[in-house]
Amino acid sequence: MNLIDALRKIRLLNQVKVANGALPAEEENAQILIRALMRRFAVKDDAMPPPSRPMFHLSWVYWEHLLGDYGLQLRRFGKRGNAQIGGDRMILIRLDSGAWRVRTAGQTASAPLAAGVGVAALREYLKRSGPRSYAFVTTSPDYRRR
């Protein structure tokens, strides 16, 4: 690894933030790695170029894990994704901006039911209005024998 690689990695690690969809532990680990790279390659804070663009998420992985917690499946194509909530609502996600909105399934051009930016905002929406799963409902073979 050379200095240019280190600067690129530091710039990318600076985007690992809770506001961008990372977990607090991931953000902490990214900061530790940044300090280690800066020490190893003698990079000063003022030598770092500004980030090229704001980033609200890192990849589809964060969105998939969040939706998976609620039993929803993310379908994606390029930088767009969606997930069906029941039979009446759909979540639409833009990877490049981190923006999401909820609309009625089959709806074409009317106002969204909810909208926001980032994984944390979608998590709050799903806590309030997401699908519910109940622990006492089971279809295991042991349950049927009783």
Explain how this protein is built.
Helix 1 (3-13) runs antiparallel to helix 2. The mean pLDDT is 80. The protein has helices at 3-13, 24-40, 60-69, 119-129, 141-145, and strands at 75-77, 80-85, 89-94, 99-104, 114-117. It has a five-stranded antiparallel beta sheet with strand order 1-2-3-4-5, covered by helices on one side. It has 146 residues and is α+β, with helices and mostly antiparallel strands. A hairpin with a 2-residue loop joins strand 1 and strand 2 (80-85). The protein is 37% helix and 17% strand. The protein has two domains: 3-47, no CATH class; 60-129. It has five helices and five strands, in the order H-H-H-E-E-E-E-E-H-H.
